[in-house]
Write a structure and sequence with these properties.
The protein has 19 helices and 2 strands. The chain has helices at 35-45, 48-63, 67-89, 98-105, 108-143, 152-172, 174-203, 207-212, 218-229, 248-280, 285-288, 291-298, 302-336, 355-375, 380-394, 396-412, 420-440, 450-470, 473-476; strands spanning 2-3, 93-94. A two-stranded antiparallel ribbon has the order 1-2. Helix 2 (48-63) crosses helix 7 (174-203).
Length: 489
Amino acid sequence: MEIPETQIKSRSDVPPATVSSDTPERHLDQGHLSGLQAGGLAIATFGPGVGIVTVPAFTWMVAGSGSWLSVLLAVLGTSLVGISIVLFARRSVGTGSLYSYIGESFKPWVRVVTASGVVVGYVFAVAGLLAGTGTYLVSFLVSEGVVGDAGDGVYIATYVISAAIAAMFAIRGLDASVRVSVSLALISVPVAVVVLVGAIRNTGIDLTSQLSLSDSSFGGVTQGVATAAAFLVMFESSAALAAETRSPRKTIPRVVMAVPIGLGTIFALATVVQYAALNALPAEALVNASPPAALARAAGFDFLAEVADLVVALGLFVAIVGFFNYAPRVAMTIANEGLLPRGLAAVHPRFRTPARAIGALAVASAALPSAFLAWSDESALTVNVVVTTLVTYFWVVPYLLISLAGARLVLRERRLPWLLLPAIALGAVIIVWILVAGIANTRPDILGMSVWIAVSIYFAVTAGFYIASRRNPLFSKGDSADLHEMHDA
């Protein structure tokens, strides 16, 4: 749902009467968030501290010496997709992010397809973060003797409690979320840097093996791209706060690109310098400890190894708080067009946040890993990995559609540089490659079948949204697209 920047009730001199009375944005705290706050929340959400010590290890597990290439391709793909997103973020302001941008360029049925990926993607993303928080937090509690048995009930309790606390901060407003997120993120960064420095001091940097790709394969590098991309997809989520950000057409594009370019570059460098340390770990090191704990212990930092799991859990909790601010605003936009229950578009009269959408996300995201864990024989760690892996696949179609929309915009407006077209095309190819490679590398285990699980869920949700759109006369006639009318800067 897009409204012109000139119609936003902000701390400029725009009178409230200029905001359209039929849009829920008018109830949000418009123009409240500064550029520094928006950027701080985005960077904290994508976890620099957590990413530095987990992205290298997770990609190394599947890509070996090609892990640096996997991360680099993930950074390149998301950054090039960001070009199309920025083209739209500079032109219009609202809360729908990708859903609204894609709706500017295509017929209503394309918004149905986009909504499917966005809604399911956000639910699974937060569910994966909750599962990760539970995995690391319970590991810490067990190591400290706080709990003796890490049964399913303990993990489920951490999912529910973490979701409830994060939802509380999100409902109370952006200021509370920014303070909590940035503060906790600042705790994890120094720990990650110390572990990184210790790894370099302990084993040095092995560039020769990495450049030769000695123990990697095409399939491994491809899987590594999907793994690394899971830490970067949804980087455009800060666009959902555009209506509540000052000077959004300038601020949001910068904040959006800070994640794939800024954090992505940091993750790539961390992958290069940690390869030798990861290779030097004993075979059983990562069986009994998390990657940061194992690296800290190998570097002689036993005191950090004791708290590493807690630090990672806090970093993941920060991400949950961030997405509890982003995703519900997108859901509010989709609900206002009738694809989700209209009640989710309601804004809390006191806190001026989409409280019902936040609550719904908390319930759905906590229920997903809880049900998976309770009704399957899989471990909590497997639940975490599977749920997180699905997120990348859910985002492939929306990213492909926004790339097509961006290319269409470049062709339509000749004042835009034509060199953007090959860059946009390359980004789309990399993103689609992730899905194709996932299909090609299907295995009989649950993780190997994750791409087909994602495709099945996507089709089922799309069918449901299509039925909802047919029952909504405004949507089916395409009239709701008028809510997305674009306005040149």
